[in-house]
Amino acid sequence: MVTWQADFYHHRRQQAAGRVLWELLICDRNRSFQFEASCPQSEVNSNWVAVQLQLAGGGNLPDVIQVFRPQCLGLIEQAGRSLGINVEPTRRTFALKQWLQEKQYPTVVDKPPPAPLPENLWGEEWRFATLSAGKVVEVFTEQPIPILVMPEFLQPINLGLASTVSVPGVVIYGGRQSMRLARWLQEAR
Questions:
Q1: What residue segments make up the domains of the chain, in order of their start?
Q2: 23 Cβ partners below 8 Å, 6+ apart?
Q3: Sign, Cα dihedral of 157, 158, 160, 165
């Protein structure tokens, strides 16, 4: 599976005429592939992004584009949809963020205040719990959970955690709202 990481943002760079310049940066996970394009703010739209994605790929488009910045997610999602590319919002765009830091561009995103969980999804009981890192994968893969997302790179062994380290978490007993709560958590990531 081919995965790109992308950012499309105005980084306070300006043209001579004083117009804001937006820059599209695309790379793969190990930065063996990098692509840059820029345009004035008046030309910013999903069609421009789609054309740039096609130019970047040269006929070989990715399966997934990862985006960490909420401000550009909508444009890249729309461009991806028109090209049949899945777009994944994630903060885990390490190669792209490293490139942005080298270019001395900010990687901080606007952080809206936390949204309260709708009351109908509160569940019947909540409690804090810990599980040893060595048991995390084993415990969850054996459970009949219909919605289970456990990315391999976040598994304790791949994070370099000793098997005896306690991993904190929250146990939610959702009762009749369990499936709705699970879907909401999956969408919220």
A1: 3-102, 119-188
A2: 7, 8, 9, 10, 11, 13, 36, 37, 38
A3: negative
pLDDT at 46 over 70: yes
Beta strand spans in the chain (E): 3-14, 20-28, 34-40, 64-67, 86-89, 125-132, 166-173
Q: List the alpha helices (DSSP H) in the chain.
A: 46-57, 70-83, 94-102, 136-141, 178-188
Q: Which residue has the tokens 């959970």?
A: 145
Mean pLDDT, the chain, whole residue set = 87
Better-scored residue on pLDDT, 49 or 71? 49
Q: Both tokens of residue 187?
A: 């969408």
- Position 12 scores a pLDDT of 65
- Interatomic CA distance for residues 140 and 146, integer angstroms: 11
User: Are the C-beta atoms of 28 and 65 separated by less than 8 Å?
Assistant: no
Homologous superfamily of the 3-102 domain (CATH)? Ribonuclease H-like superfamily/Ribonuclease H (3.30.420.10)
Residue 47: pLDDT band (50, 70, 90) is: very high
The residues near 174 (Cβ < 8 Å, ≥ 6 apart) are: 121, 123, 124, 180, 181, 182
**Percent of the chain at pLDDT exceeding 90:** 45
**Residue with tokens 């943002």, as numbered in its chain:** 9
- pLDDT (tens digit, 9 = 90+) per residue, 147-189? 777 778 778 888 888 989 999 988 888 888 888 888 887 777 6
